[in-house]
Amino acid sequence: MKVKPKTLGELRRSSYSEEKYKCRSVKDEIRQNLVRQLERGETIFPGVVGYDDTVVPQIVNALLSRHNFILLGLRGQAKSRILRSLVTLLDEELPVMANCEINDNPYRPICRACRLALEEKGEDAPVDFIPREYRFVEKLATPDVTIADMIGDIDPIKAARGGHQLSDELTIHYGLLPRANRGIFAVNELPDLAGKIQVGLFNIMQEGDVQIKGYPIRLPLDVVLVFTANPEDYTARGKIITPLKDRIGSEIRTHYPVTTQEGIAITQQEAWLDRDGRTNVTVPDYIGEIVEEIAFLARADKKVDKRSGVSQRMPISCIENVVSNAERRAIACRESDAVPRVTDVYAALPALTGKFELEYEGELKGADSVARELIRTAIGKVFQKHFDGVDLEPIVQWFQLGGSLKILDLSSSSDMLAQLRKIQGLIEKTSALGIRPKDNPALTTSAAEFILEGLYAQRRISRSEEKGFVADERKQPAPAKEDYRSPMKRPYN
To answer: Which residue, 48, 52, 112, 425, has most beta carbons within 10 Å?
Structure first.
């Protein structure tokens, strides 16, 4: 095991050369590591789906240009994940002055305490190493954030214990930004920061000086500043002050998944679907497609506020609730297989209604009604995709001849399958979904119910709380008109 240097003298004689660390900034460090990853063809931001041709190239350009940058996007567009992934572009560890609050460079310290330590101990000044995870500082901007939180404040206790004047630099308790020295400082929701705090940010990032309690202090920090903001706040509300906006090198806009397949990939990656093993959870592809389609429809629906957006967290929470409802049914029926059905999507309404804001028209209808409409439309679109050109008229005719079927939420798969087999041609049509006769009853039941829900979504059959699935009354043949030409049926005058 390689022994790490413990003093400045040992550090000079090690592989951590003075030439490398004295002149290289954090932005240069990130740039060099990024170039190496690009040369090796490595994934820059693992786990970020759908940005390979849009957002990622712009971020790479900003980092290669040594820019501070801001990500503009609605909620649930992986902005915070991207910022946290920047840590992978830092060196695995970094030499710093031991016990320094601001991770001072041993070859070029900027804080008063470290400079005094070098004057006193010289080559014997202690050094330490910090991992790259400790070099990322994140702050959620809120209106109550103070300049002391971000930059620092005078600590009277330090002054009293050390016998220093309050104006002495040794009495400073450093804030978040100085503690991110030689690292990355991320601010989420930048427009929510008060104007005077933003002034402190751009002043220290550009001029390298700051005033604490009226005392000017020269603090040339070496830090990468990255921000996030909602584009509505950034442009319409205008809360980012012009001098700070001018000093942000690149403005990069994020977006929601462009295709449902990208959305499904994100949902499968983030959702908790591997349960504790008591039941075997199998999520059919069409269920995942329906859940993702709901989010896409909500983002385009006029009743949903587009300025607020529909977060990608909505399909993630929804599919987790869908699986939980299927799991609850399997446990109640003592079944080993938990296969979600379309009715489980309706049971996941609580995971949908809180994830979008409504316009006036939507408020009049109510969140539940809007969510149910979205589910029904999503089912219809996915159903059309899988059953386009498939003859389902025999199933419709079975209902038109007086057939009905009521599906209970906690009905076991075997009981449901026995009822579904009575509908002529229904079970055979599940082959369009890749269901085979030997598949377990839970999969067959789910597929058959999807067909019925699809026919209902296309208004070819009807459904009610009392009777379940029945024939659509609008498709029933009209009653024969009475022949008033017959003398016996002629109305009285």
So the answer is: 48
Contact 455, 396 (CB under 8 A): yes
pTM exceeding 0.85: yes
- pLDDT greater than 60 at residue 493: no
Cα–Cα distance, 96 to 100 (Å, whole number): 8
Q: Residue 168: count other Cβ atoms within 10 Å of its Cβ.
A: 15
- Residues written for the chain: 493
Please determine, for residue 480, whether its predicted confidence score (pLDDT) is greater than 70.
no
Q: So what's the pLDDT on residue 486?
A: 46
Can you say whether residue 152 is alpha, beta or left, with left for phi > 0 and alpha for psi between -120 and 50 degrees?
left
Stated as kind and residue range, the H or E segment containing 461 is strand 461-464
Which helix (H) or strand (E) segment holds residue 337: the answer is strand 337-338
What tokens does 320 get?
């987790």
C-alpha–C-alpha distance, residues 31 and 38, integer Å: 10
Q: What is the pLDDT of residue 476?
A: 53
Cα(164)–Cα(132) distance, integer angstroms: 34
Neighbours of 162 (CB within 10 A): 13
Put the strands of the sheet holding 250-253 in their side by side order. Answer: 136-140, 183-188, 223-229, 69-72, 250-253
Neighbours of 267 (CB within 10 A): 26
Band (239; pLDDT cuts 50, 70, 90): confident
CA 54 to chain CA centroid, nearest Å: 17
Nearest CA to 43 among 61, 56, 54? 56
Q: 8-253 architecture in CATH?
A: 3-Layer(aba) Sandwich (3.40)
Contact at 8 Å (CB) between 151 and 198? no
Cβ neighbours of 283 (radius 10 Å): 19
CATH 3.40.50.300 in the chain, residues? Answer: 8-253
Q: Which amino acid is at 351?
A: A
What is the DSSP secondary-structure string of 202-271?
A: HHHHHT-EEEETTEEEE----EEEEEEE-HHIIIII--S-HHHHHH--EEEE----SSHHHHHHHHHHHS
Treating both helix axes as pointing N-terminal to C-terminal, what angle do 367-387 and 441-457 enclose, rounded to 10 degrees?
A: 110
Q: Which of 222, 235, 178, 227 is nearest to 198 (CA)?
A: 227
Measure the CA angle with vertex 329, ends 451 and 322; round to 5°: 60
Q: Which residues contact 158 (CB under 8 A, 6 or more apart)?
A: 164, 170, 171, 172, 173
- What pLDDT sits at residue 430? 94
